[in-house]
Amino acid sequence: MNIPDWVVFPDAEWLTLTPEDAGFRGLEWKKAVGACRPAPTNFWGERHAPEDFAAVLTRGGYLVQSWGRAKDYKYQSASVGKAFTHALVGLAVEKLKLNIDEPVCRTWTGAGEFSHAHKHFDNELHRDLTWRHLLEHRAGFAIESGHSWRSGEFPDLPWIREKWSGNPIYDMYSFRQNSNERFYSSGGYVRLGQALTALWGMDIKTVLDREILGKIGIAPDNWYWMSLQEAYQGTDIYPAAPGYGHYADPPYFINGSIVRGGPGWVCMSAEDLARYGLLVATQGIWKGEQLLGGQWLISKSGGNDSTMIGDRITFVAGARIATQSLPDFLWVNDFEEYRFPEHLIDPHVVPGRH
Length: 354
What we know:
Layout: E1 15-16, H1 26-34, E2 39-40, E3 54-59, E4 62-68, H2 82-96, H3 131-135, H4 146-151, H5 158-161, H6 186-200, H7 204-211, E5 224-225, H8 228-233, E6 253-254, E7 257-258, E8 266-267, H9 270-281, E9 285-286, E10 289-290, E11 300-302, E12 306-310, E13 316-321, E14 323-324
Parallel strand pairs: 1-4
Antiparallel strand pairs: 2-14, 3-4, 3-13, 5-8, 6-7, 9-10, 11-12, 12-13
Helix pairs in contact: 2-6, 2-7
């Protein structure tokens, strides 16, 4: 990828530009952000102090706009962490020569580690499931919330309803084998996180720190990835949805390594998360080094008004942590496709040289 020469990369601190000097159209930009009244989310009963929210927008490696406690507020960002799990698959392809179209059972079966035998990857339900099936939400897992699952609040589809037992732990298996239809499910990413831990033979947070995050200026101690066990036990993750994490089934340790929350639950500041967004925008290049192939780097939103974005055309990147009432361009659809609105960009302005 050819990165424009006006793109810079932050060191310990971000360089800053005004919106106009970053190339955002003055009047259109003021209309887009002027009516915003950012505030903490109240998603499923989340509790935040009035000042506890954070968001940033950058362009070309320059910090342009921030809201709230962008530098220091850290709170679990729901499904945004799926972008990290996605990157770990890419790292496995590039570093470990993983074939993502190979059945997972050739690497890990989970025998003796799962709560029920019908979950094993080498049985008739799962032996043909590949890494790609899990990665692309095509593995037939249906659970998104233990609370909703117990109450029967999910899409009323025959392939779900006919097998539903109401027990999220028991029902954490593939309900629909050999299907190419995409069905978004955090349950499948629980399995992906477990399988990646077995594949790497270590804490997958350590892999990310070593291969990517440490290289873009995010220190290991500056962020946290909730464990799968914490997600299961976290009765106050979403107070209005008690038992939300009860689909996050064991194993919680694999060969002595902690299993992280593959479906999400990353705790990181908005400024640091925007660094990752810049890496998405540059398709994996940081200061001239290709850290990971661009196809493995995706933008992602989480249900609790959290987002990480990177646009490969305009080089806009940003993040928000549990913040509502911000512009629509700080959101990503479920297919991880992100484009910053072109009408907000002045093509005659080169960021940093205006």
